[in-house]
Amino acid sequence: MFEKLKSRLKEVRNKLDSGINEAATREGQPAEVPAAEKRPAGSTGLVDRVKVLIVDRELVISESDISEALSELEIVLLENDVAFPVTEEIIANLVKELVGKRRKIGEPVDAIVLSALKKALGDVLGEGFDIINYIKTHEHPVKILFTGVNGTGKTTTVAKIGYFLKKNGFSVVIGAGDTFRAGAIEQIDVHAQRIGIKIIQHQQGGDPSAVLFDTVQYAVAHNVDVVLADTAGRFHNRANLMNQLEKIRRVMKPDLIVYVDEAVAGNDAVIRADEFEKTVGADAVVLTKADMDPRGGAAISIAHTIGKPLMFLGTGQGYDDISPFSPEKVIEELFGDVA
Amino acid sequence: MLDKLGSSLKDALKKLAGKTVVDRAAVEELVKDLQRALLQSDVNVKLVMGLSNAIKKRSLEEELPKGVNVREHVLRIVYQELVNLMGDGGEVKLGAQTILMAGLQGSGKTTTTAKLARYFQRKGLRVGVICADTFRPGAYEQISTLCSKINIPCFGDPKEKDALKLVRDGLPSMSGLEVVIIDTQGRHALENDLIQEIIDINTISKATHRWLVIDAALGQQASEQARRFHEAIAIDGVIITKMDGTAKGGGALSAGLTLTASFPGSSAWGI
Predict the structure, then answer these.
(1) Which residues of B touch A295 (CB under 8 A)?
(2) Which of A202-211, B40-49, B146-155, B174-183 has the lowest mean pLDDT?
(3) At the fourth CATH level, which superfamily is domain B3-86?
(4) Whether B267 contacts chain A with CB within 8 A
(5) Under CATH, what is the fold of the domain B97-262?
(6) What pLDDT digit, counting tens, does each position of A134-163 carry?
(7) Residue A318, SS3?
(8) ipTM more than 0.90?
(9) Residues in a beta bridge with B211
């Protein structure tokens, strides 16, 4: 998903390299001139002194050396849907990493730039979330509640995660908590049948809290490992719907609240993630539709702004199209071409 | 939409008040505020850069017309360039037509289909809906439930796997109706099979209009997706959905640039 960001980052890296290198040649020359003038004096220690001046001399990277490349990086990140505040933070991290850093003239620039970029991105990516390990180390049934705005792919994600957990040897029950949208119960019901998972459902228009309460009761009675609770999409600026979610939370007492959003969302992703976090909380994030977009900047932004780990990335329409998120892998993918 | 832009523009323009010549620093600051506001609203980066360069260039180069102060002069340029950026709003014709709905997964095509059907029905037209979404479970149940609530005939078959067949069979059953809306499954630009499918549906249905449904929260990806849909089936209208959230719709706006009609959907709750 990161192809585009990756190639653009490479250009910026080269620019940073050359910015720093230019500064090096500028400063490198005057170092030689006084050395040559002194030569007639002819002391034996001189050769060593020149060597120290040219080879071991350290350069301090200044902000002006990299400012052009930095503003280009800013545009690159914005173009790739990295949200505005997050972009600013990455740039600030990078400046902190690079400016004032001493390096020796002989030392290659590439390594310094690369590690600084990796660190700047790593800082905002955060850590992933190991769901398998979480389920193993917590009391069963582990109750997971899915939330998010309309059309982000909650229902599909519930089905995919159900399938993923089933393949990993856990027993799963799904609660059809979207009682609002027409066709939602039919949708999750078909998914559950296809992947062979038990589903608890009520009528359309019923109380979602009641459905999910029943689902938890079923899980307790039948020793099921994991409860996946689907809910209706809702906007964060609708108080009554957020209250309903709050009620669901009180009634079913989820162990984990997973916030679902799409990887192609723009700056609003950050605003609504924040609202959901404030009203009902969120322990982890799943980003869907990551296959739509070769950029993937929203993934970076949301993970950072909500301050919660990314659990999964949805990458297609099949049940297998979901991959556990690992920040190391993303950074590896972004800079993977470097030897 | 873009409400924040208004206030930041006002602040920036204040700085130009009382000046006799156009001040480069003030213009640059104004442009910077403008860029920030537009980018935060997901307007395409390239569009923003083009717009800000045009404003900068015109403000500094164009001669100040007589009797106009600097502030008014710059304001006029900003206004004209913003109008250029927005493009024209589209007009929805009331008459016999076939409308093909297209868009990404979860953008709100089915809900919008029902809302449109209701809209045309209220204008006194006879409307029918064809459900050509053969992929998503529950899609037919969803649209047929919505349609039955508003007494609109809905053609579809949840067991049929061939969307083309549904359209081919559905159209004759809609004869006698004036407006036919074809709902399709969600797809994105990188899914070549599905793009081919919608090209075929467009050909078979001889649709009068092909409307692209775009989520207001869609980011920088919007323009690229719209371009690919446009290449495939010549989109002639954009509908922005979920404007009742906090998204500013800048992505969708960027998507609509090459296209004409727009018809913002306002709420998911009740049609």
Answers:
(1) 220-221
(2) B40-49
(3) SRP54, nucleotide-binding domain (1.20.120.140)
(4) no
(5) Rossmann fold (3.40.50)
(6) 999 999 999 999 999 999 999 999 999 999
(7) coil
(8) no
(9) B101, B237
